[in-house]
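User: Predict the full complex structure for these chains.
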Amino acid sequence: MAKSVSGDANTRELIAFRVGRQEFCINVMAVREIRGWTAATALPRAPHYVRGVINLRGAVLPIVELAVRLGLPSNEPSARNVIIVVQIAHQQIGLLVDAVSDILTASDASIQPTPDVASDLVKTFVKGLLPVEGRMISLISLDHVLPPSELEAA
Amino acid sequence: MDPMAAIRETFFQECEEQLAELEAGLILMESGTAEAETVNAVFRAVHSIKGGAGIFALDALVRFAHVFETALDQVRSGTLAAGPAVLNLLLRAADVLADLVRAARENGTVDEARTAALVVEFIQISNLGHEPPPAPKPKATPKVPVWNIAFTPTPALYAKANETALLLRELRRLGPVQVALDVTGLPELSELDPEGAYLTWNITLEADCPEQAVRNVFEFVEDDCVLEISAAAAEPVLKPGDVITGDNGFSFEFFPPSMPEDEEVVAAEPEHHEAPQIAAQKSNPVEAMAAKAESAAAVSATIRVDLDRVDRLIDLVGELVINEAMLSQRVLEAGIARASGVAMALEELEHLTREIQDSVMAIRAQPVRSVFQRMPRLVREVAAQTGKQVRLLTEGEGTEVDKTVIERIADPLTHMIRNAIDHGLESPEKRHAAGKPAEGVVRLTALHRSGRIVLEVADDGAGINRERVKQKAVENGLVAPDATLTDDEIDNLIFLPGFSTASTVSDISGRGVGMDVVRQSVAALGGRISIASRPGHGSTFTLSLPLTLAVLDGMVVSAHGHTLIIPLGAIVETLKPKAADVFPLDGEINVIRLRGGYVPMVDVAASLGYCEEFVEPDQSVALLVEGEGGVRAVLLVDAIHGQRQVVIKSLEANYRAVPGIAAATVMGDGRVALILDVDAVVKTARNESTRGEPGRSELSLAEAR
Amino acid sequence: MITTVLTVDDSRAMRDMLRHSLLAAGFRVLQAEDGLHGLEVLETERPDVIVTDINMPRMDGFGFIEAVRRDETRRSMPVLVLTTEVDIEKKNRARAAGATGWIVKPFDPIKLVEAIRRVAA
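Assistant: Here is the predicted structure of the three-chain assembly.
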């Protein structure tokens, strides 16, 4: 049976965004909304990539600075930053990125595996590379963005 | 949602209510305080479940419910005396019924042997040796063709001395007829022609004959009338005693509307006690029923509301509170005088908002009864499993708490009660040897105390075996072998993760469900759990929870530039600390002298990791706070910014628990502010200030009393 | 003319079930949760047929039927009993109270509708 090029079950829609000089993308199904930057309230003794929490229409949303999480150099956030609100399991979190660049449609076949020489950190998050118009966009998985909560002895 | 799925859901919800009624009623019967109506209600509960189960063809449930219902019917009619053995059976049957309902709902399984064993017991006590008497063999109504005949004679017919009656008689020879007279054609009497014909007869004839046979009856008068004959839909006329049958034993039996002298069964049956009852009832049933209903209605008029709607309302009111705060802030910033019309109107608004919020919260407030009700069964089961004798006493079932809290205390309470029976209470032999009654007591209490709800689970068992607990903790590497610990500290070891004194992982309290899990779930609710134990006399676990997870009265403070909320309920007083009263302890900790005693001081900003250096005591504001168990500390902050009622937002929902922080809220400027977990902060301070000082804990305990 | 049916049963699930079946058959459905409630409904409505349970709190089916019949204008209103009871004594009691018919649960919706149609006629 001939496979159709577009519209078959093996394509997905991705949203691409920039962090520093690199581009990443995530499945659009995980994205709830995109909003401008708001100053976050710091959380005591939080991991360095958790900038704090903001108020999203009455709910408390943690903000993860993706640059820091991925081990990339980071700048002080400003009004030029963008927060992508994503749904991971039963939680919503906000990813702090530089800008949203594109909405792409890609088939499973077009995604290339992550090269082995990549760092552990990268390998945890990056599930593949997507070549688009001469750029390499890293497809990231959100499952490990927030580590599981550890049991703290009372 | 598919309508049947919705109805099924409704059915299972109703089952839960019926099961609760059933258990409550049986318990009343057990204590001898039940009235006739209680027994009726118990019967109806099982009857209802059986009826509904039939709709969805839940066969196992229907079968068991039927046996159960039959026994209950015998109890309520007096045929079966409800002695202790019978009531015990009924209670166990209620448990099995609940299991069957749950299994039906979740497509799970039940212990069939247990079910079968109970059925056998039912048969034995009530001599139910047979299936319910089969319904009397219904006479199936044959489907006979029906003819609709509309017969309108013309004047000519009468002129020929024919009469409708004769024709009808002829028709009757073919089969039963029903006749209706249509008189709409009749004119006014003054215009009536005595030899005219104005009537139409509508006749329904049940006859297994061809149409021609019907026509033949009218043969003679064919030209003198208007005749319409049609075959009706094959619905024969209903006769008394007619029975329509269908699938699943459906049977519809038709009684005629008014047959007092009807033959058959009424007189034939020997007079039984039912008859006089009927007569007596006939005299004043409505009044009696109405009177009963009035007293029932006086108890409470209620209305069922979709929970989603209430939640939405609560959210909206929460937003209203935030907005009102924002407005107040803007007004303040705009420099509007406090005595001005605007400011005063705003104050009115604040009062109103607060009242709305209180009312709305009250909608969700529920008595803990619904959770307490599950406990008797639990106690029965655990007692049976551990071979112990237990009596459960409950107090304060009417104590109200927000629905959000209610749902989440069930699990911790369950574990605590299991623990009390499994580990707290001794076996009947041991109790006897100790001079105690063989039956142990577990007391479950709920009450309000200083703006929180307090739940206590107390047992009169052996108390915490401190030797064993300490030993186990050492074995598991939780404490150093040579550490000296106070009784209180040893008791609290059981809350540490990975701790268990059970030599075998008992099915009940084992399997990873330790007291550490209980403490965590309580902490997630913003609550605290503590324990008091006396060897030989028993232990008491105290659970203290906020009344609602939704709203809090707090003091707004700032520490190192960060805005924090401190729950008002935890604040005893504010102080201006003087350097002279502050004494260092072990270099890092400070205590402050307060009215003859010493209280540890906590630099909030440092404690939360906001900054490294400690603030100077005389450049800060101090708050004397009290945590769970009366433990006190003095918190140092930069400034106090007033009091506010805040809507509590969960941190765990989208993130996780943060040590030292209870929850979050949204301030007037739309930004998130964190709510301090006073108990945690105080505890840390306490631990640090008493580390390595064996006697001090007891001193502080004494101080707290 | 749409046939109006009043269903009286203390089980919400059963009322939903009946409503589902009867609406599908084109009837207009009124509901009550026990005998007393049923009488309240009858103060302002005139259903063509009543379908009632026996075991209900506050006022059971027997009491309800007797109260219905006590009103002259409701003597010929068809009242069908819908119940899981198979007891002959109860059946006779219903008849004596003035019931028009006796249907045993679990009910076959199609047959129930048929029965209602026929007594309503």
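The CA atoms of residues 504 and 510 of chain B lie 8 Å apart.
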